[in-house]
Specification:
The protein is α+β, with helices and mostly antiparallel strands and 313 residues long. The protein folds into two domains: 57-162, Beta Barrel (Lipocalin), CATH 2.40.128.120; 169-308. 21% of the residues lie in helices and 40% in strands. The chain is built from four helices and 19 strands. The strands form three sheets. Strands 11-12-13-14-18-17-16-15-19 form a nine-stranded antiparallel beta sheet. An eight-stranded antiparallel beta barrel has the order 1-2-3-4-5-6-7-8. Strands 9-10 form a two-stranded antiparallel sheet. A hairpin with a 2-residue loop joins strand 6 (127-133) and strand 7. The protein is elongated.
Amino acid sequence: MKIKLPIILVGIVLLLTACSSDDSEKQADIEKEEKTISKTVNKEEESAKELEPTLDESWFGDWVFLSDDINGSIQIQKETDNQVSVYIKGSSISTVNNSSYGNAIEGSGTIEDNKMAFKRTIDGTCTGTLEKNDNMITLTTDSEACNTPQIYLDGEYIKADSIEQEPLITEENGEFFVYGVTLGDSPSFVKHMLGNPTFEGPSEDGFYPWVLEYDKPTATISIFEGLMNSIIVGNISLDEFTNGIPGEFTGKFYKTEDDTTLYLYNPENEHLLIYRAESEDLSTGSILFQHADGNFHVGVENGWIIETDSSWE
């Protein structure tokens, strides 16, 4: 026996089936449209990011203040896509009373091309600009609020990681150079070649009015009347010293009677390079580079210091 559905009921079922099919198609169309919109938005965001200016990474890091009497630096770090933090500091020691003075600026800035505008974070009273040219930055402050009577931070700075250590000993036109610096160089040029010293100020014994002391390399540079007067380098092997002597050196070779001290002397400019052994086998010691003084000349005249050949034998 077959069950016959009323015609009206069949019509309702067919109508519901058609509506359900239409709803599914509409939902599929909506989801497809949403995906298309999402892809368009993502592409637009990616295009916008590509158009955003990217900060030059060479700004970031430590910079050395090329000053003759202030030990200073700048530290720059990225904070956001166009914001950076900047920390500028400097210190100095008085040659009159050994008093220490310092100055520091902690601020934020924005970089545009090769320039950065910054202001002090705490109150905004100190503002200025940094202009970058390759591995050098020039700092210019816009107000006296940035400086103290003793510490002015305006000037040139060199990127610390751009400094490459020169060989221990070189010679050019009869002049000796130790790690790229020579007698008569300014403290700022020494920093240009060696970076910031670990200490800068009057020597502890009071013998030198100003010294720059370094840990790497182990060196002490004395400054007299604003210019490099001598350099002492410790922890040097005899091989390092002798291998560093230029083959074309035309000066004179000397040694002490006990062979513990060796000398390179250039009579034309009075440059004197000395190796002093500090071990029993003479294999390690220190070097001193200075102008020949009375002690050297008296030693030569009295036979305590003996002229020899390049082998020091």
